[in-house]
Amino acid sequence: MRLFLRLALGLVAAAHVVLASSPTGMTVHLERRHFLLNDDNTVNFKAVANHAKQLSHKYTFLMKKFKDNMGKDHPLLNALVDALNKRGEGEVSLTDIRSELLWAGEIQFGNSKFKLDFDTGSADTLVNPGAYEPQKSSSSRKTSDGFETSYADNTHAVGAIYTDNMVFGGLKAKNVAIGLSKTRFSDDGESVGIAGLGFPSIQAFPKKYDPIFVALMHQNAVAEPVFQFTLKPGVGSTLHLGGVDHSKVKDKLNYVDVNPDDGFWITDGSVQGVKTKFVIDSGTTLIIGPMDQVLEVISKLPGVTPHYHLSSLQATFDCSRPPTVDFEINGKKYKLDKQQASYGTSFGRCVLSIMGQRGLPMNAWVLGDAFMQSVSVVFDMGRNRMGFAPSA
């Protein structure tokens, strides 16, 4: 279940973690979980609708937190939508759980080790009750700050913010903030919470608490203020910390500037020639955009048939004839291959990994797992930029 916080936000997934050496640091191997398909590999449209609804809730919440933190509306705010009524390197390897959604790996706070999802679309760290045991850590401190969580089903949970020493991908930082929930917000296997990798301007915790990667940066724990996602079906996916692993890419990285004040990892781009903005979000499964823009893109894809379902727009195609979908960023085109173009089937046809959603609180496309499996993405917090290249 995706949750929406007043003072923290997160997602959950199962994970299996192995540490391994890499050419540039440590690797933590992650797994991912699939929840949008039935056992026969057909699409569970109810789950998809909930996923899209929860994505809208997530970004509505984060837009509010941005305004709280920055004193102004987010530049991507869609006003037409009533949606707001040691220095070194480490690497986290990601492993596919059942072939969809959310990337998780091991992290340690104090004496507690657990698995969290890594989400570039949020900025706080939150865990289920019992996952983090502050009473067993001499370095744990309970702060005077708390948080309240708000779920898509209108249930709530509250908890306290602690600080403790953290170990992440072999890298260490002191007095890092973690939210400990009093009620369980995830029943998704081994993963017990979320770790946000967005910029501080969208964090729900008070500003005095650094997000986890920012804490590593400020405490000089990383050789470079950079992390890199390389996602693949099955095994071989990695989150590299503290530098760029060039063995993961086939070509020169294509860099674009980002504005850290925006909070999200945002860039200009186009899909099938339709100009828009992209938010790169490792906590999202599909590629989701405004309804009108997605319809325009679908109309340019031969053999793709649009289907409306409640407040969403989806599409299907003959599985033997997958469409070629081009995402252009800074003059370079990145294509979804056959596997990424679809995430399941319905009545013998493949369902497109791109969907339109009415009620998105921002005028942008959210590029999740379906896009990120086609490229390796470098997130450079030092130079405020992102780099893209086809995965090796």
From TrEMBL:
<keyword id="KW-0378">Hydrolase</keyword>
<keyword id="KW-0064">Aspartyl protease</keyword>
<dbReference type="GO" id="GO:0006508">
    <property type="term" value="P:proteolysis"/>
</dbReference>
<dbReference type="InterPro" id="IPR001461">
    <property type="entry name" value="Aspartic_peptidase_A1"/>
</dbReference>
<dbReference type="InterPro" id="IPR034164">
    <property type="entry name" value="Pepsin-like_dom"/>
</dbReference>
<dbReference type="Pfam" id="PF00026">
    <property type="entry name" value="Asp"/>
</dbReference>
<dbReference type="InterPro" id="IPR021109">
    <property type="entry name" value="Peptidase_aspartic_dom_sf"/>
</dbReference>
<dbReference type="InterPro" id="IPR001969">
    <property type="entry name" value="Aspartic_peptidase_AS"/>
</dbReference>
<dbReference type="InterPro" id="IPR033121">
    <property type="entry name" value="PEPTIDASE_A1"/>
</dbReference>
<keyword id="KW-0732">Signal</keyword>
<feature type="signal peptide">
    <location>
        <begin position="1"/>
        <end position="20"/>
    </location>
</feature>
<dbReference type="GO" id="GO:0004190">
    <property type="term" value="F:aspartic-type endopeptidase activity"/>
</dbReference>
<feature type="region of interest" description="Disordered">
    <location>
        <begin position="127"/>
        <end position="147"/>
    </location>
</feature>
<protein>
    <submittedName>
        <fullName>Cathepsin D</fullName>
        <ecNumber>3.4.23.5</ecNumber>
    </submittedName>
</protein>
<comment type="similarity">
    <text>Belongs to the peptidase A1 family.</text>
</comment>
<feature type="domain" description="Peptidase A1">
    <location>
        <begin position="103"/>
        <end position="389"/>
    </location>
</feature>
<keyword id="KW-0645">Protease</keyword>
